[in-house]
C-alpha cells in the first residue's frame, strides 16, 4: 500500500504538468517541416513526449490501484499482475528516456540549419501556411527569427526582405502581440526601432525551442528516473509480499496436514485400544 501511494504521488507531477506550449494548430505546419533524424519531425517528437507523460502517469495510477487491491485483499493474482505491469511500464519509460536523450543530441545538429532554410520562405505579416506558422511561433515562444536579431538579420534572406521597407522585424515579434494584433503592429516603432523593452528581437526561436525541449524533456527524464526507482522497489516489495503470503498459506496447509495426521494417529490408537479391550474381555 505504501508503494502504491508513492507511485501515485510521484506521477502526480507527470500528469499535472503543463501542456506543451508549442502544440498550437498554427505552429504545427512549421514543426512538421523540421525533421529530427530520418523518421520523425518536431511535431511528432512533442506529441510523443506529451502522450508519454500522460500515458505513463495514467498507467502507473491504474497499477497503483491494483497494488492497493492486492495488498489489502491479499489477492495473489493481483500482486503478480501488479509486478508484471510495473515491469512493462518501467521498460516503456526507459525506452522513452533513452529516445529523449538521443533527440536532444539530434536537435543540436539539425534544427538550426532547417529553421534557417524554412525562414527563407517567410513572407511577413501576410502569407501562406508556413509564414503564419512562423508568426504563431514568434507569438507563442516570444522569440523572433532563428537567431538573436540583435546580433544578426535572419530575415535578410527571406522573401519578406524585399517588401519590409524600414521594418527590422515583423509585427509579430513585438511584445504583447497576438495572432490578431501582430498584423496591426506592422510599421510601428517596435518593428522599425526594436529594443529588448518593446520586442523579442533579442531572443532567437532556435534557442527558445531548444530551451523548451530541454525543460520538458529534463522534467520527464528526472521524473521518470524517480518513478523507475519507486517502481523497482515496488516490484521487489510485491514479490516479497507474494512469497510471504505463499509461505503463510504453505504453513497453514502444513499445520492442517499435521493436525490431520495427529487426528488419524489418535483414531488408530483408540481403535487399537478398543480392539485390545474387546479381545481381553472375550478372553
From TrEMBL:
Keywords attached to this entry: Membrane, Transmembrane, Transmembrane helix
Q: Where are the membrane-spanning stretches? A: 48-72, 79-101, 225-250
Q: Where in the cell is it found?
A: Membrane
Location, primary (coarse class): membrane
Q: Which Gene3D superfamilies match?
A: Tetraspanin
Q: Which Pfam families match?
A: Tetraspanin (PF00335)
Q: Name one GO cellular component term.
A: plasma membrane
What is the membrane topology noted in the UniProt record heading this document? Multi-pass membrane protein
The record's listing under SUPFAM superfamilies reads: Tetraspanin
Record-given protein name: TSPAN18
Give the organism, scientific name. Answer: Mytilus coruscus (Sea mussel)
The taxonomic lineage of its organism, from the top, reads: Eukaryota, Metazoa, Spiralia, Lophotrochozoa, Mollusca
